[in-house]
Amino acid sequence: MRSSVQKRHHKAHRILCEKWWSKSNLDYVRPCKSREEVVRNVPKDMDPHDWEWLVSNKYLTAKFKEASDCNSINRSKAIKMPHHSGSKPHRELKRQKEEKMDVQPTQDEMLFLTRQKGGHFVEQAAKDKYVIKIDR
C-alpha cells in the first residue's frame, strides 16, 4: 500500500476513534459520580474488562480530564472567528501544506492558515486564541 494511502487510512481511523471516545465519554462517563459507577456503566457490545481498561487508561487520566474540561470551556465561549481563506476549502489548504512540508499540519497551523491574510491575523479573537494555544 502506498504511504499516502496508509496515512489517510490511519487518519480516518484516528478520527473515528476520537469521535467514539468523545461520545462514550459523554454518554457513559460524565453522567457517573464515581470511578466504580463508570466501570459498571459498560457500553453495549463492549467487553467489561476492555471498558475498565479504557476507563483507567483514558477517561479518568489527568491528561484526558484536563483536555476535556479545556475543550468544554472553549466551546462555551463560542468565539466568532470567521475564516479568511477565500473560497478554498480547508481540506485543500491542509493538503497543500501537507505536500509542501511532508507532514500533516497541526491544529495551530490550520488556525493560522484559515484566519489570516498576508501572514497576519485579521481578527483579534483569532490572534488571542492562537497565542493562548501556543503558550500551553
TrEMBL record:
Residues 76-106 are annotated as: Disordered. It comes from the Eukaryota. Residues 77-94 have a biased composition (Basic residues). It holds the Pfam family Transposase_24. This is Uncharacterized protein. It comes from Stephania yunnanensis.
